[in-house]
Amino acid sequence: MTSFDGKGISMSHWEWLTTLEREPSNKIIASGDRAASGAHFVHLKLAQDTLLNPTQRFAYDRFGPDALNWQHCSSIGDYLFQALSKFGPTYVGAGIMMTILGITGYLQWGRFWRYIFSALLLLLEFYTVTRPYWPPLLNNAINPLLARLTSHPPLLPFQLLALARKTTLSIFIALSQLGPLLQPKPSTSTTSSATGSIDPQQLNRIEQITQANELEATRLLGLDMAPFVGDGHGVDDLKARLKEWLVQNTIRNDPEVRDAMGKVMGRRRLGAPAGARNVR
């Protein structure tokens, strides 16, 4: 198998291209479709021109077939500047969005790894498009592994970058989906003691319980007041008796109130006659 390093074109590649130009595929010949045959030869002519032009071959290897349609690009520097204007805003926008989401409290879990993978992807792309040779990772690891284990043709640098972008995006999605499941949830007591405040969920639960108790008390009071509906004199008498009962059984029976009343009564008896001191 012939190895391509991006610096030149091997003889076996030229022989393969010449064979394709002289002998189109059997399917096109059998169909007799002149339009398809013409398109096939135009495609081969474009491939030959790209291989003969070192600048276009450099752009094709690193930016893909779309680079051949870029206008006003005659040198490697022009292609690099065009690529920077096309892909640069994507990286800048992604960095700004990640920063905003991190500041506002979103995407907290795995935030460090997102920055690491973004920086690695940017470094890989910068290294790949600015070097005259193919990345060693492609020549020494990925392509030999593909040749040994699969029948897939060798990857070009732009295919490596596309695969790296998709892999990075998949890692970001995995971090967003699996992060909340893998992150241990702090206990409520620990959170409350550490922050000095009550958990909002606890406040909502207490509010719901309070509202339920208030509704139940209102319903029971309505049942107790049912016999006095429409009887204003009876309602006034009931209020007076309830007030007297509260005073007699609640206020006067309170230990502090009884102690205070005892002290007052004791001071009053100090100046009373001897026979009246023990009278209550």
Account of the protein in words:
- The protein has 280 residues and is mainly α.
- The protein is built from twelve helices and no strands.
- The chain is rod-shaped, with a radius of gyration of 44 Å.
List keywords for this structure.
about 280 residues, mainly alpha
Mean pLDDT: 76
What is the number of helical segments per DSSP (H or I, 4+ residues)?
12
What is the overall silhouette? rod-shaped
Distance between the termini: 120 Å
Beta strand %:
under 5%
Q: How do the helices and strands follow one another from N- to C-terminus?
A: HHHHHHHHHHHH
- What helical percentage do the residues reach? over 70%
Low-confidence stretches: 1-7, 10-16
Please tally the β strands and state the result: 0
Question: Summarize this, please?
Answer:
The protein has helices at 11-22, 26-31, 34-52, 54-63, 76-103, 111-130, 136-149, 157-182, 188-195, 200-224, 232-251, 255-269.
